[in-house]
Amino acid sequence: MNAKINNKNVIITGASGGIGEKMALRVAENGGNLALIARSAERLEALKEKISRQFQVKVETYRLDVSEFEKVPKVFSSILEEFQSIDVLINNAGYGVFDEAHEARFEDIKGMFDVNVLGLVACTQQVLPHMRERRSGHIVNIASQAGKLATPKSSAYAASKHAVLGFTNSLRMEASQSGVYVTSVNPGPIATNFFSIADKSGSYVKNVEKFMLDPERVAVKVIDALFTRKREVNLPRWMNFGSAIYQLAPRIVERLGKNAFYKK
Question: How far does the signal peptide extend, from start to end residue (predicted)?
């Protein structure tokens, strides 16, 4: 349990399913209030009802596609008006499409960058002035191990997550001057519906199914890190170790891991 979350106001994007939903439940369990953002109003309302039945916390829902940048300020203004303060922003909205670079549709590439990167930046910019003024807050960006170690068939997705990590690392140093914490979360494959879009053939899921992370475990690790100075949450540890080795010896890792990487 993280007692520091009690009575804090937490925004989660991409909250209608997967680790977004699990993180929302974990926040509520710790006594935090929730502003839930996602594209599906119906699924958000179902989650709100579930949380309201189980926990005595405030929950509000906001339908928003974070790639519709012009709508982001209005939604965040509504959240601030309703909650009066914002303590945490978890940028969880994101998706991937796995294709080799020469086969990838430009629309998919643009879509990933619009949601995974620019949507994340747009949401972050809405809370930063408020947090800096209060000299308090925590921004969590859900990135990926793909942002540390790119593999075949995910060039555009990996590029978007590299961008998220670059943005996050710079933001962390800037925000620290105002007492605002910034954490990146870098999970490997998670057992969610992410792969219904990313891996339509199902071949990648079949190959890595036994290594997939439990979304509940990821959510616990993320929420337990709130209001700590934790720089990164990396899961699983063995995969992050591989990413670290790649930084030191990329040619060796690419040669030895070639067959495994092509299992997407």
Answer: none
- The answer to whether 157 is a known catalytic residue is yes
Going residue by residue through the chain (264 aa), what tens digit of pLDDT does each one get?
788 999 999 999 999 999 999 999 999 999 999 999 999 999 999 999 999 999 999 999 999 999 999 999 999 999 999 999 999 999 999 999 989 999 999 999 999 999 999 999 999 999 999 999 999 999 999 999 999 988 888 899 999 999 999 999 999 999 999 999 999 999 988 766 665 554 555 555 555 555 678 899 999 999 999 999 999 999 987 777 777 877 877 787 777 666 666 565
Q: What fold is seen in the domain 3-261?
A: Rossmann fold (3.40.50)
Q: How far is CA 112 from CA 11, 82, 109, 126, 226, in A?
A: 21, 30, 5, 21, 27
Catalytic residue among 157, 204, 246, 262: 157
